[in-house]
Amino acid sequence: MKLLIAIVQDKDANRLSNEFIDHDIRATRLSTTGGFLKSGNTTYMIGLEDERVDEVLEMIKTASHTRQQFMTPPVNLDAQLDSTSAYPVEVQVGGATVFVLPVDQFHQF
Ligand code: 2BA
């Protein structure tokens, strides 16, 4: 058995949740925050049999899109600022970031 931890953009999450339901994939959906952009994203915890890992990776891949996002770097009030340092910078986000972990035991009590 494996545990997939998949971080996807909020905009892709509803479609992916529906895919999981349609294909009888059990998942837990968490509202999370990216450490860099400090904006919301969605993390799924998905416990599943080894044989279904590739199928679910393909679902995540299909549902997740790459997007350009702007972030404003934090302003350091102690530093001497040049005129460009507070301007937004463009960052590419996604598709999805996925970890595949082995599961020692699985219990439902
Ligand atoms: P964030 O941490 O908000 O990162 C959003 C995007 O900003 C990243 O997209 C990446 O393109 C860029 N980025 C992140 N850290 C950066 C840095 N130190 N310098 C320059 N650019 C940086 P993705 O790579 O697609 O990641 C999307 C989200 O997936 C991340 O949101 C984070 O929540 C999660 N993530 C990505 N890699 C991870 C990892 N190794 N461990 C845990 N979570 C991860």
Automatic annotation (TrEMBL):
InterPro entries: CdAMP_rec, N-reg_PII-like_a/b, N-reg_PII/ATP_PRibTrfase_C. It comes from the Bacteria. This is Protein from nitrogen regulatory protein P-II (GLNB) family. The lineage of its organism: Bacteria, Bacillati, Bacillota, Bacilli, Lactobacillales.
